[in-house]
Amino acid sequence: MSMISEFRSFVAKGNVIDLAVGIIIGGAFTGIVNSLVNDIVMPIVGAITGGGFDFSNYFLPLSSSVTAPTLAQAREQGAVFAYGSFLTVFINFLILAWVIFLMVKAVNRMRMMEEKKPAEAAPPPADVQLLTEIRDILQSK
What we know:
By secondary structure, the chain is an all-alpha fold. 72% of the residues lie in helices and 3% in strands. A two-stranded antiparallel sheet has the order 1-2.
């Protein structure tokens, strides 16, 4: 078997195609969730906390030559321990994870509601239907 035919059979497997579709949809979903967090959730959090969760300029200088007020300037002057950037990213991750959790929970709830819909009763088999008609005719006489 040549390498090209092996590659063709690998790509043709359903799992690879499903994975590719999942990655493409995941990329689009990432944009939606990022917009939800950055454009809807974070402004509300910022309004509540009076500025939001931007700790990006919190740092500890590791050198006596660092005297700058902002992290970008401080990095130019020397070594800094930039814990504020980590805190900002970590809090954004927690908010993002919470939003995704709520979205997945809502989708699962919709699926459960869809599954709970009662199915229509199937018509009785022909022999039972015939016996029911005979019974009804005998009762009417």
